[in-house]
Each structure stands twice: as structure tokens, then as C-alpha cells.
Amino acid sequence: MEWTQKIFKKLTVQNFEDLVHAVFQYQIKHCSVYSDYVLALNREVPSCIEDIPFLPISFFKTHKVVSSETFTTGESIFKSSGTQGIRSQHFVKDIMLYEASFQKTFEYFIGKPDSFVILGLLPNYMEQGDSSLVYMVSALMRKSGSQHSKFILNTPEEIPKLIKAAKKEGRRVLLFGVSYSLLDLIELKIDLSSCVVVETGGMKGRRKELSKAEMHKLLCKELNIPKLYSEYGMTELLSQGYCQEDLVFQTPPWLKVFFRDPSDPLTLNNGMKSSGLNIIDLANVYSCSFIATDDLGIKRGGGFEILGRIQNTDIRGCNLLIE
Description:
There is one protein chain. By secondary structure, this protein is an alpha/beta fold. 32% of the residues lie in helices and 21% in strands. Strands 1, 10, 11, 12, 13 and 14 form a six-stranded mixed β-sheet that branches. Helix 2 (13-30) crosses helix 3 and helix 9 (179-188) runs parallel beside helix 10 (212-223).
């Protein structure tokens, strides 16, 4: 089956659900970790997509989550930042499927890569290596076609010069930056008013944690950013969401968010109060598309807002496959 064509074609409610069921059947056949989990729950014949079990994301730290009969060492393995200990691993059988996912999402929410000079301020991801975010930003840099697109590691003072270079090319700078590194720019008094800025995550233990609302307000004020984007992504997913100043994340058609009891990936709710996030990501067809994350969120219109992380909670179901 040509999954890429099916995943990224125009999805209606009906053909999305049909494709979800097809991916579920494929994964319980080819992903032993997920199959064992589903069988342990006795839920191998879901009547609707809401009945499909979501695999706790922690299994990416303890098991090889692969929906394929073969996986060669030449294929990609992405690893999480590891700020909380063991790094999650995502074995990516088809890297072109990942590229299609992030490029289509980027173009839908932000624009064409060749409209920008793309900069990356992602020091912790660069240091640890094997980052899906670094891979994505690197690929978007190449697609920008600008010689000025680059990663900024220890020389953020270069940014004003690169903004001028982008203007000469008739482009704007698009800056991907991890939160603490963007906050570091405040001391340099860099004016980012002409830039598109995408914040990509938390403090990674480098600074005191701020709420996303507090951080966006501070960055916009001190760096003169008229509109700050935020990206929602993780090692275990091949798709992303983006939000703007309203802090409500929107997702592409092949990614759908469900809301659950924070301690139970099996009990869904309407998302009207603080809830755990369960995600269907069809781009994860060769790993697991049904993930119970450790994120807390709340439903906002057609999207969701991130409230934080689930702390000190044993998610029900995690002990089903302990070896």
C-alpha cells in the first residue's frame, strides 16, 4: 500500500476514519509492541476510532516501536533531548514520509521555505545529536535555497547581519529557536521586528520555567516581535502543530488530538478541563500512530492549548508490557 499518497491526499471525515482503521490493522499486524499492548487490553476490534487504544509514549524509551517487518541500520533513528533521563528513540523507516509531513505542514501554517532565510537557534539539540527537529530545520534550510540559512550556535550577534542579508535577497528571516536561547537574545537587545520567529520548546533545565503565555509576552515585548509562532512537535511524532499569539495549536489533517483523563490513556473526555493529550498521527504509520502523550492540554475551538506536563503520574497501562 502506498501510504504517503493516502496520508497526504485531501482527507474528509469519512476517509480519515477509514484510513485510521486501515493503519490500526496494519500496526497490530506489524508492530509487535503495539499488538501486544492492544491484545493485553482485549481491544483488537475497536468499533470506532475513539475505541482504539493509545500507546503510552514512555514505550519509546523502553521498546523498539516499529511497524515493519524489517528495519535496517541505514535508516534514521531520532532521539529525544533526554532532559529527564533516558532518551526516547523513534525508528523512522521512510524519511521521505517525514519530510513530506513537515514540509506540507510548514507551508500550510507559515509559508514556502524559499520565502525565507532560515536560521536555527537550537544549541541543546545540536549538542546531543540525532534530533528530529534539527533534521527538519536543516531540510527547510536547504529548501530555502539561501546561502545565508544556517544554524547559530555561539554567535547570536550574527543575527542582525543576517537580517540585512535577507532583506537584500527580498526575503525575511525565519528563526527557529528553543525558548531559553530566545530569552538569551534579550540581553543582546536584538530587534526581531522584521522576522518570523518560531519558538520550539521549553527551558530544557537551563532557566526557570515560564508559562507559554508569560514567555510569549516577554519575548514579544523585549525582542519587538509582532507575532510569535510556537511549534508543537516531539521525537515520537512525525507531524507538528503550530500556534500564533492566541496560543491555540492547529494541526494538519492527518494529525488528530483527543483528550483523556490525565492518568488513564483509555478514558477519553471532551477536553473542557485539563486533560492528557492522545494523538493520532498517520505519518507514524511505520512506528505507532496512536500515542498517549505526557502533555496536559485543553480544547480551544478547533485546536488545543498546552497547559504543561503530567507530573509524577503512573499512566494506566504502562506496566502491561514490562519485561
